[in-house]
Design brief:
The radius of gyration is 36 Å and the shape is globular. The strands form ten sheets. It has a seven-stranded antiparallel sheet with strand order 11-12-23-14-19-20-21. The protein has a six-stranded antiparallel sheet with strand order 13-22-15-16-17-18, with no helix packed on it. A three-stranded antiparallel sheet has the order 6-5-7. The protein has six domains: 8-82, Herpes Virus-1 (2-Layer Sandwich); 108-141, no CATH class; 143-178, Classic Zinc Finger (Double Stranded RNA Binding Domain), CATH 3.30.160.60; 187-306 and 320-355; 365-550, SPRY domain (Jelly Rolls, Sandwich); 560-633, Zinc/RING finger domain, C3HC4 (zinc finger) (Herpes Virus-1). It is 35% helix and 17% strand. A hairpin with a 6-residue loop joins strand 3 and strand 4 (58-59). The protein is of the alpha+beta class. It contains 16 helices and 33 strands. Helix 5 (183-238) packs antiparallel against helix 6 (245-291), helix 5 (183-238) packs parallel to helix 7 (296-307) and helix 6 (245-291) runs antiparallel to helix 7 (296-307).
Length: 777
């Protein structure tokens, strides 16, 4: 058993993060798969200095690699004793709390131990607690929610007054004299409500299915009407003279465009209805499943979240108002025969106005950011000379082949890469590029060729892709191998891209304090689009995290709601347990109750603000929305000392009044206050974003030429440099890591400190003699 319990994590290769294969140990003592360390050192062949990927110790000449027999035997034993893959806990599975290293899937949970156990550890638990009444249930990740946080007892009762599950001790203290029943009794009551809700959902499903069928029939009818309008128009235009042939084509195009847009809108409505039906069915199924749950506590706790009905799609608000009437169009077309010359000047414009929709394009950066998305580069598509870094958000053309495996999606001859995410609907993203030669900022169909040498695989050189070509001195736009040079006043290194797929709009903007349009194109997209980039040698592209700012700004707006708007007019404090009375004014429940208690004798109750009277005494119900807003205000309130003062580093995401930054991110190149730092951590959980203490010198830590972190030191030129600098501007110079150079300088610093201290001691000895010589007392 001791052998079997050795953690596999101790025998993982730090390069491939998998169990060692053909293990070898290098001179510094670290071990790797032979293929992994060989691949790493192959990339260092040019420098003839080979390093350890972990401790960075260097070796020259290249060490010989021999198989580590002991490690190989241990790894082999681990493989033989390894459990089947389906025993491991995956996404959504409850993990065994006792397993060390890689966790196995839990089979049961114990309500006494408050642990979940895999099958092996469950048998040990049963053996250990044999004859003891430990309550075991199906594995659940909600064990802590079934225990009273104050008394650490099982939740067995339900407080109707406070609408929460409680333990027996709670009934004697915090909930004393409240309306309390057993969890089982309350479950029975809630189950009745559940049945009623299920019935309501089923009725809504039936109604929505009727609406769906009606809308489908209307769409089909509209398609037939549109087709009839097209046929009538064609028949009439064949009778007209050649001078109106151009007008005929224009009208047909307008009809087709209207049909396409109207059907597209209707299909969007169909999709939302189908989604609502699916949501209702899923909720109905969840309610049905909940009704059979044996655990009272789980039932009551789940009931609250499932009782709120899914959002309804309103199909009664003019559901077919966007479909046009073909009768009016036919009438206009018939009149064309009698108005030959006037038709092109007047009537065509009238018809055009009747079938044209207005497409509203975003104007400000704030407008664009509501459509922003974070993109991730697809490693499987990257050309072998493109190095992907920083969680696949940065591309650099190193002009050296990377050790990528062969893949059918990989670009073979062009230094290009696509993103994983497809573009549909309205989509906006930003990027920043650096280098001297330039980049192609592109969108492409997924069907673009990956292996060809010709135009079929180059962005902008075929009908599958569209590209903005950026260089240090010019912009141009390229599609289907037709390149158009664009007139611009200045070149921006930060570019915003906006796509409205259904409207066929592709726009490129330079981004600074304002948005400046570089170029826009109107076309028809027939497939999903994928963002892509061609990158020249010694050039990098970084995908920007614009959505973080948007999300953060919305949160800050929430936090900046004035508390004065939620003050009770009676106690002049923030509302507590808020209630709204019939006149619309709101108070703390205890405050308005106290006021009305004094009016009980006259049996007429008034509002302390507007003095409107009520009889009989109105019932008071908690205003949930107000309560939630007040609770958010309490949680998001920032104290005055959070404001950035003189000398403080400001949060880069705050709008309006800036708060003091607590951390800076070397990946995002932003500084964050505590609120925005939490949002940053939440969004990039599990991703390697390098955080440091807040600093106003972020830009000084970045190479101005390559926009990479300064990680190396050039002893030859006595300056900090980035990794790309070592391959180009500082090639063949005497270069060490910044950490190594710091150690060396630290030794010099200690010597200098020692010298200064000796001089201070000597001068302190000389001071009395000098005072005597100059007669200073």
């Amino acid at each position: 058993m001791a052998e079997a319990r050795v953690s596999q994590d101790e025998f993982m290769c730090s390069v491939c993060l998998d169990l060692l294969k053909d293990p070898v140990t290098i001179p510094c003592g670290h071990s790797y798969c032979k293929s992994c360390i060989t691949g790493c050192w192959d990339q260092e062949d040019q420098m003839r200095v080979y390093s350890c990927p972990q401790c960075r110790q260097t070796f020259s000449p290249r060490p010989a690699l021999a198989r580590n027999t002991m490690l190989a035997e241990v790894v082999e034993k681990l493989k033989k004793r390894k459990r089947p893959a389906d025993c491991y806990a995956g996404a959504g599975d409850v993990q065994c709390d006792v397993c060390t290293g890689r966790k196995y899937k839990a089979a049961k949970s114990c309500l006494v131990c408050l642990n979940s156990y895999c099958q092996n550890h469950l048998e040990q638990h049963e053996s250990l607690f044999k004859a003891k009444r430990h309550k075991v249930t199906d594995a659940t990740g909600r064990l802590q929610e079934m225990i009273c946080q104050k008394h650490e007892k099982h939740l067995e009762m339900y407080c109707i007054t406070d609408k929460q599950c409680i333990c027996l001790l709670c009934t004697k203290y915090e909930h004393k004299n409240h309306n309390i029943v057993s969890a089982a009794a309350q479950r029975t009551e809630k189950k009745k409500q559940l049945k009623k809700m299920q019935k309501t959902f089923q009725q809504r499903i039936q109604q929505r299915e009727k609406d769906l069928q009606q809308l489908r029939e209307t769409v089909e009818s509209h398609k037939r009407s549109a087709q009839t309008a097209v046929e009538d128009s064609e028949r009439i235009f064949t009778e007209l003279i050649r001078s109106i042939e151009k007008s005929r084509s224009e009208l047909i195009r307008l009809i087709r465009d209207q049909e396409k847009q109207a059907v597209s809108r209707a299909e969007g409505r169909l999709e939302r209805l189908e989604q609502e039906i699916n949501d209702l069915r899923r909720r109905d199924a969840e309610l049905e499943q909940l009704s059979h749950t044996q655990d009272h506590i789980q039932f009551l706790q789940s009931f609250q979240s499932l009782s709120a009905p899914p959002e309804s799609t309103d199909v009664n608000d003019g559901p077919f108002s966007f479909l046009f009437s073909s009768e009016g169009l036919r009438e206009s077309v018939h009149q064309l025969r009698d108005k030959l010359e006037n038709f092109c000047k007047e009537d065509l414009k009238k018809i055009s106005d009747r079938v044209t929709f207005t497409n509203i394009v975003p104007r400000t950066r704030k407008d664009f950011l509501q459509y922003s998305h974070q993109l991730t580069l697809d490693l499987n598509t990257a050309h072998k000379r493109l190095l992907l870094s920083e969680s696949n958000s940065v591309i650099t053309n190193t002009d050296t082949d990377q050790s990528y495996p062969d893949h059918p999606d990989r670009f073979e001859y062009s230094a290009q890469v696509l993103c994983r995410e497809s573009v549909w609907g309205r989509y906006y993203w930003e990027l920043q590029w650096s280098g001297d030669k330039g980049v192609f900022i592109s969108v492409s169909y997924k069907s673009i060729s990956r292996k060809g040498r010709g135009n079929e695989s180059w962005f902008g050189s075929n009908d599958q892709s569209w590209s903005l070509i950026c260089s240090s001195s010019s912009y141009s736009f390229k599609h289907n191998n037709i390149e158009t040079r664009l007139p611009v006043k200045s070149i921006s290194r930060r570019i915003g891209v906006f796509v409205d797929h259904s409207a066929g709009i592709l726009s490129f903007y330079s981004v600074s304090d304002t948005m400046s349009l570089i170029h826009t194109v109107q076309t028809t997209f027939t497939q999903l689009l994928y963002p892509g980039f061609w990158v020249s040698v010694a050039t990098s592209v970084k995908l920007c995290c614009v959505f973080v700012s948007l999300y953060s700004c919305s949160k800050m707006a929430e936090a900046r709601v004035s508390q004065d708007e939620f003050v009770c007019p009676v106690c002049l404090d923030l509302l507590k347990d808020p209630v709204a009375i019939p006149c619309g004014h709101s108070y703390c429940k205890s405050c308005i109750t106290g006021c009305w208690d004094q009016e009980d004798q006259v049996r007429v109750y008034s509002c302390p603000q507007c003095r409107q009277t009520f009889s009989p005494r109105p019932a008071l119900a908690r205003n949930t929305m107000l309560a939630e807003v007040v609770e958010k205000l309490k949680k998001t309130k920032l104290s005055a000392d959070c404001d950035a003062g003189a000398g403080d580093v400001q949060c880069d995401v705050c709008t309006g009044r800036k708060y003091k930054a607590v951390k800076s991110c070397l990946v995002c190149l932003n500084s964050y206050c505590q609120n925005h730092l939490e949002q940053h951590e939440s969004f990039f959980k599990g991703k390697r974003h390098n955080l440091t203490d807040a600093t106003g010198r972020l830009q000084e830590m970045i190479c101005q030429k390559h926009e990479k972190h300064l990680e190396m030191y050039c002893i030859t030129d006595k300056q900090c440099i980035c990794v790309l600098c070592t391959k180009y501007e500082h090639k063949n110079h005497n270069i060490v890591s910044a950490a190594v150079q710091r150690t060396e300088k630290q030794k010099q610093l200690k010597k200098m400190q020692k010298t200064f201290q000796q001089r201070i001691q000597q001068r302190e000895k000389d001071l009395p003699a000098a005072e005597r010589d100059f007669g200073v007392s």
